[in-house]
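Dear colleagues,

For the upcoming journal club I promised to circulate an example of a predicted protein-ligand complex. I picked one with zinc ion because it came up in last month's discussion. The inputs are reproduced below in full, followed by the predicted structure.
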Amino acid sequence: MISTRPALRRPIAVLGFVALSAALPACALAEPVKTVTPVSLADVQIDGGMWAKRLEISRTVTIPACFKHCEETGRIDNFAVATGLKEGKFQGAHYNDSDVYKVVQGAVYINKVHPDPKLERYVDGILAKIAAAQQPDGYLDTFFTGKSKNDRFKNISPGPRHELYCMGHLIEMSVEHYKMTGKRTMLDVAIKLADHIDSVFGPGKRDAVPHHQELESALIKLYRATEQPRYLELAQFFVDRRGHFDDRPTVTFYGQDHLPVRSQSEIVGHAVRGMYHCANIALLYTETGDPELLAAARRLWQSTTQRKLYVTGAVGAVGRGESFGNDYQLPNGTAYAETCAGIGLVYFAHEMWKISPEAQYIDVLERALYNEVLGGVAITGDAFFYNNKLLSNGEGWGSLRQGWFRCACCPSNVCRFMPAVPGYLYGHLGDDLYINTFMSATATVKMDRRIVTVKQRTQYPWDGAVKIAVDPAETAEFTIHVRIPGWARNQPSPGDLYRFARQTLGPPVRLRVNGEDVAIELKRGVRRHQAQMDRRRRNRPGPADARSPCAGSR
Ligand SMILES: [Zn+2]
């Protein structure tokens, strides 16, 4: 049931309801598309319920624990060593810089909504070490600093050296630091680094694609922060060169380098790479308006969510190569389902929702968020799953959560992701307000012509009742779109991959405005392909037994 607070100070608007047609935004080539603008995490205060506890654990336990692990494993010292401030050698694996960037990014978010001078000083100290490690030409990767310059960018495509991946995380963290603090210190580091990358790669220069996607989206975010088109052009180069490997070594299907992006229809290869890849395509579409990119993103969305999605919202069925399997290959006991891949699916879903605010995208986002991502971290906040089996006898690698990993991508990604969760609640398109998912929170939504305070009170996901109070700064008429979750409409996931074992749910969804029932007008409802359901059913996993966004139980 959804109802508004009985006594609003001012009349609220016309109510509309989410949904879902495949209407393609009209756009021209090389022009940005008007998309839904998410409400920044800085403007949403989670102030009750399960999420307030989870975010507090993230602030007080997860991020401090991961900083400690970064210190103990030499990840932070690597920057001081690269600078010459500390004696020693590089420690650990060649991708370790990225973990520091991700944990710092989470700390920057936390400090924005919960200012802590001690944490700010600590983070500033790390940032100073990172900035000092930048070479005069802009290069920054501590694994290669001190080695011959000939070693730089030597094994981009055939060897997983992760230089461009690490640099992508540095650029993204720096842009977010600038947005959250207004300080240019790290943004300037990112610009210098991006300019260096741009001097090496691009049309008429070196032809390569990052072995692990991340840099592409970071460059687009840098473009948005600086309005310098060269960063968008470089991002487009890296996205578009995938699948064109006649004159360079290929990353193969493992890195989605098997076909040109515009020809891709099936999600394959390494699952984290794959989800970042899809998010990059959608993100690039929003800046270019290229309909071929949108068509590719939609085909890959269908492949991911209608044929390769676990009931928990996890993706990546196969341990070998940490990769996607074939259509409907979704084993429980040997599921790989890396936490980072679940986070990547959230990114992909969110980018698709911004383009076309359909409930199906948030349905998948929510399923992955509650089951895959939250399951990836212990309730105590200091232990993590790397892979997330759906069936386990408690034995074997990945059956128990661990405090840290040599390859610590998942814990550091959880650090980056969890404080950003408030940014997934709301959005606006012009003066239309979108309410996506449900948490006790107070938000200030700055729409095109008005500011609206939105307050939610709910025990979601334990209880489906949600109270939403909408308080515009001035009396106004505008549209509010409230998502009616698919799980409340007998639609556990997009398409027909899953169905409920029992088709009757509890009471139907009710909407009350100022205490009075109103008719629900579903717009863009998920289209169901009943005719195809029976034909495909024999190859797919059993029906979901979910009655809430929490589909799994671990
Ligand atoms: Zn991971």
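Two points we might discuss: Residues 438 and 460 are 6 Å apart (CA to CA). DSSP finds 14 helices and twelve strands in the chain.

See you all on Thursday,
B. R.
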